[in-house]
Amino acid sequence: MTKRSKKQINRPPRTSQRSTSQRPVAKGTSSKSSIQKKTPRFGKTIYFFGDGKAEGDRQLLDLLGGKGAGLAEMTKAGLPVPPGFTISTKVCTRYYTNGSKSLAAIDSEMNKHLKHLEKVSGAEFGSSDNPLLVSVRSGSKFSMPGMMDTILNLGLNDASVEGLKDRTGNERFAVDSYRRFIQMFGNVVIGIPKEAFEHVLDVVKKKCNVRADNELNAKALRDVVRRYKKIILKETQQAFPQDPHRQLRMARDAVFSSWMNPRAIEYRRIYNISDEIGTAVNVQMMVFGNTGNRSATGVGFTRNPATGRNEFFGEFLVNAQGEDVVAGIRTPQPIANLERLMPKTYAQLKRIALRLERHYRDIQDFEFTIQDERLYMLQTRNGKRTGYAAVVIATDLVAEKRISQKEAVQLVDPESLTQLLAPVFESQSWNLLPVIARGLPASPGAASGQVVFTAEDAVTWAKLGKSVLLVRRETVPDDIHGMHVAQGVLTATGGMTSHAAVVGRQMGKPSIVGAGDLQIDEAKRQLTVGNQTLEEGEFLSFNGLTGEIKVGQVKSQPSEILQVLSGVLSPLSSDIYQRLDRLLKWADRYRRLGVRANADLPDQALVAKALGAEGIGLCRTEHMFFGEGRIPIVQRMILATNEVDRRKALDELRPLQRDDFYQVFKKMEGHPVTIRLIDPPLHEFLPKREDLMVDIARMESTNKYSERLEASRTVLRRLEQLTEFNPMLGHRGVRLAITYPEITEMQVGAIMEAACQLAREGRKVVPEIMIPLVSDVRELQYQKRIVERVASEIQASFGTKVKYLFGTMIEVPRAVLTADQIASESQFFSFGTNDLTQLGYGFSRDDAGKFLQIYQEKKILERDPFQSIDKVGIGELVSLGVERGRRTNPTLKMGICGEHGGDAASVFFFDTVGLDYVSASPYRVPVARLAAAQAALKAG
Ligand code: PEP
Ligand code: MG
User: Dihedral sign, CA of 15, 18, 20, 22?
Assistant: First the structure.
C-alpha cells in the first residue's frame, strides 16, 4: 500500500463534532513516522473466537470489554455464536496516544485474524461468489448502551451484493443489506448526517407509494443504493469504498473515535467511568435477521429488569436487523409471541439464556438473531436493572439457591437503593385524574413536571429550578444530558429495551416508552393525545411502574419503604420492605465500618434508626434554632449588647433545646448521639440585609416614626456589624463559642439536663459533645473546661452520673496536622469532610458551583469533590488525621460526618483508612450499609 492511500484511510472522520471531541495528540506523538519507529511491539492485541474455541474469557474483561469477553465465553461454552475477533482496548488507547491514528502493526495483525475468520466461516472477504460479511461493534468494560457506534453488513460492495443475492436467492434482502450498510457507513464512518439518507428513503417510498421501509422491493432498494452512493460522492469527492479491507479499517477507527463522541463522554461523566479505559472493537461474521419472515432479531433479559420478577423477558422484530430493536424506531413484539411463531427456536433461546444466568450468577441481558429459524447468540452481559429490581433479583437468587448471601450483597449497586426510597404519587390525587394514555412501564417511580420536548430545553428549564418531564418521539443516545436532569422520560415509540428504557432504568429515572397514542410534534413543541393538546410547559404526570399517563400535576408521597417505616403500612404487607431488610441484614454481617446518621430532629432520628443507623454521627444544633417560634429568641440573643441580656435570651432557649435533645436521645434508645455545638455565623439567623432595607424604606415612606421601624433599624445596624466578607472563614464554629462562652454553657447544660432526665427514668443515653471547626488544641482546652464544669454541675444537681464523651470535628487542615495534640484532649474525632474539602482545596462551598462543572468538563477534576471524596488530597488529610490522632490516643473513636458518608465510592475509601464509622444523611443510610459491606468484602 502506498503511503498516500494509507493516509487517506487513517483520516479522522469528517464531522466537526467528532474532531473537536477527540483527545489532543499526546506529547511527542505528533509525527507519525517517529512514532512508528519508536513504538515497540505491544503484545497480543487481537483475540479470536469461533468454532467452539476462544482465546479470551471473562478474566480479560479489561482488554476485551464486556461484549468481547461475553462472546469468547459463550463460544467456549459451545453456544451458537458467529465467529469473529476482538481488537482489544489496548489498541484504542494506542489509537488515541497516536493522534487518533491506527498503527500499521494492527492492520497486519487484523489481516491475519481475517484470514482465520474466512477459514472458520468458509466465506471470503470481498468475494463476489461467497462473500464474508462482518459487523463491527464497540464494547467497553462497562456497558454504555447506544453511546458508541456500530456498523453492520461490512464487506458488501457492488460485486459481493450480487454474490449475496445469488447465494441466498433473495435479491431484496441482499440489496437491503447493502443500502443499510452504506447508510450506516456514511453516517458513522464518513460523518454524513442521518437525515440525508432518511430523506432519500422517504423520496423513494413516496415514489413507490409505500409507507414502510420493508415494503420497498429490490428494484426500489437499488434506486436507494444509487442515490446513497451519490450522496457519498458529493460529500467526500470519492466513490463509496469498494475494498472491504479498507472499509474494515475505516470502520474500526470510526468505532475507536466514537469512544470520544460527546454523548459517550457525557455518559461516562454521569457514571464516573474513566476516559482512559477505551473500547474494544468486535469484528464478527454477520448473521441475518432480515432474510424474511422466518428470521428475526431481538434482545432479552432472563428476568424483568424493571420489577425484578422472575419471568423470561424480551422483545424481537421479525425480518429486521440488530439495531432496529434498540433504536426504538419500530415497536417490537414481546418475546412470548416468539413461542407461537417459532416454538423450537424459542425453547432453545430460553434454555441458553437461563444457562447463561446460572453461569454468570446474575441476570443476563442478551442479544440474538434468528436466521431462517437458526438461532445465534450475539451478546450476553449482566443486565442493567432498577434499584427495585436489583433487590428483588438478589434476594430471589439466594432463595433459589443460585448464589450465596455474600454474593447477593455484592450484586446490588449501593447507589441504586436510593430509588427505593423515592416518592410515589399520593393515591387520592392520582386516582382523581383520568388516564390519557398508557405506555410500557420501563422504569418505576412517580414523575410529575412541565413538559419539554428537547434535551437542551430540559437542561435549560432544570437550571431555572423547574421540574421537567422530557417527552420525545423516541430518545436517542444524544439526549442523555436531558434525561439526566428530567424528573422522568416519556417516549411515544420504542420497547422495553429501547435506549430510553435502558438508560432510564439505569439512572433510576421514572420512564415510560412506546406510548403509541401520544403524537409528539417536537418542532411545534406540542403533544396531542386524542383531542387534547399540551403545549410546552404544561404539567403532565406518569407512573413508571404501571405505565399510566395523566395530564396535570400530582403530589407525591413517601415510597412504600418509608410508609412502612412511618407505620402507615405494616412490614408484612410490603414485599420490597422485607427484601431490602433481608439484604441489608446480610450486608451488616460483612461490614467493618459502623453506620450512623446525620439527623437534627427527633423524626429524622427515627427514620435514620429505622433504616439501620447505629447512632447519630452529627446533630447540628443550630438547626434546632430554626424551629418554630425560636428565631425571635435567637435574634434577641444576637442583638443583645451585653452578657446579661444575652444570658436572658439563652435562658429562654435552654428548655427548648433540652426538649429536643431529650426526644432525640429517647428515639435513639441508647445508641450514641453526637451533638455538635453551634457552628454557623450568627448573621445567618437574622433577616436578609436587602429585605430589611426594603422594609425600612417602605416604613420610612409611610410613617415618620414607629417602634417597628426603630427595631428594624437596630437589626440592620447589628447585621452590618456581623456581616463578613468570607463568612465561611469568619466568626463561626468554636470561634463563636470562644467569644460567647455562655452559648456553650447553655447548650451543654441543655444536653446534660436531657441526658440526666433520661438516666433518671432508667433509660440508657450516650451523649457525645462535639466542638466544631477547631484548628488549635488551645481552643479545645478552653471549651473542655466549660463543658466539664457545666456537665458536673448538672449531674450533681440531678444526683445522677451520665457517661458522656468529649470530642471534636476535624475539618480544618491545621487540625489534621496537629491531630496528635488535639487527640490528647479528645475522646473522639469526627472528620468534617465538607469543610475539609472546602479548606483543603480552597474552594468555597458556596461558590464552587460556578466553576466545578467546567473543571469536570475540562477533565481537571473527575468528580465534584464535595460529592465524592478526593482520595488523593482530602482523603490523604483524613488518613493523616487518623494516624496522628491515634499516635497520642490509641483509643480515639473516629468517624466522618461530611456528605461523603453517604457516597458509596467514598465509603469504600473510608473503609481503607481505618475509621470506625461513617455518618450519612438518613435516606442514604442503606447506601452506606451496603457500600461498607462491599468495601469489607473487597478488602478480603
Ligand atoms: C463538615 O464540614 O463536613 C460538616 C459535617 O459540617 P457542616 O457541613 O455543618 O459544616
Ligand atoms: Mg463543617
Answer: negative
Q: What's CA 248's distance to the chain center, in Å?
A: 34
At 124 the pLDDT is 92
According to the model, what pLDDT value does residue 358 have? 94
Indicate the burial class of 2 (C-beta count within 10 angstroms; 0-12, 13-18, 19 or more): exposed
Q: For ligand 1, say whether the CB of 223 is within 6 Å of any of its atoms.
A: no
**What does DSSP assign to residue 436?**
-
Residue 499 — pLDDT band, cuts 50, 70, 90? low
Closest protein CA for atom 3 of ligand 1: 832
DSSP state for residue 148 in the 8-state scheme: S
Specify whether the backbone of 375 is left (phi greater than 0), alpha (psi in -120 to 50) or beta: beta
41 pLDDT more than 60 = no
Clarify whether 359 is annotated catalytic.
no
- CA-CA distance, 341 to 334, in Å (whole number)? 12
CA of 772 from ligand 1 middle (Å) equals 8
Pocket test of ligand 1: the residue of 678, 811, 845 to mutate, having most ligand atoms within 8 Å of its CB, is 811
CA distance 500 to 544: 12
Cβ within 8 Å of residue 793, ≥6 positions away: none
Residue 723: what pLDDT? 83
pLDDT over threshold 70, residue 493: yes
Per-residue pLDDT of 840-858, as tens digits, reads 999 988 788 778 888 987 8
Judged against a pLDDT cut of 80, whether residue 504 lies above it is answered with: no
Q: Is residue 811 within 6 Å of ligand 1 at its C-beta?
A: yes
Report d(CA 131, CA 288) in Å as an integer.
14
Q: Over the chain, what is the mean pLDDT? A: 88
Does residue 681's CB lie within 6 angstroms of at least one atom of ligand 1?
no
Rounded to whole angstroms, how far apart are CA atoms 900 and 623? 20
Q: Using a 6 Å cutoff on CB, does residue 832 contact ligand 1?
A: yes
Instruction: Give the list of residues 6+ apart from residue 891 with CB closer than 8 angstroms, or none.
Output: 827
Question: What DSSP line would sit under 213-239, residue for residue?
Answer: GGG--HHHHHHHHHHHHHHHHHHHSSP
Return the bridge partners of 301, or none: 313, 365
Tell which atom from ligand 1 comes closest to the C-alpha of 834.
3
Candidates 508, 457, 21, 506; CA nearest to 263 is 21
Distance (Å, whole) CA 482 – CA 567:
37
Question: For residues 867 and 899, what is the distance between their CA atoms, to the nearest angstrom?
Answer: 7
Mean of pLDDT values over 116-130: 91
- In one-letter notation, the amino acid at residue 802 is V
The closest of 911, 940, 913 to 414, measured between CA atoms, is 911
How far is C-alpha 823 from the chain's CA centre?
A: 38
Cell 404487607: give the residue: 573
Residue 471 near residue 540, CB atoms below 8 Å = yes
Q: Give percent of the chain with pLDDT exceeding 90.
A: 62
Catalytic annotation present for 897 = yes
Q: pTM, whole model, 2 decimals?
A: 0.80
Looking at residue 649, what is its pLDDT?
94
**What are the two backbone dihedrals, phi and then psi, of residue 329, each rounded to the nearest 5 degrees?**
-80, -45
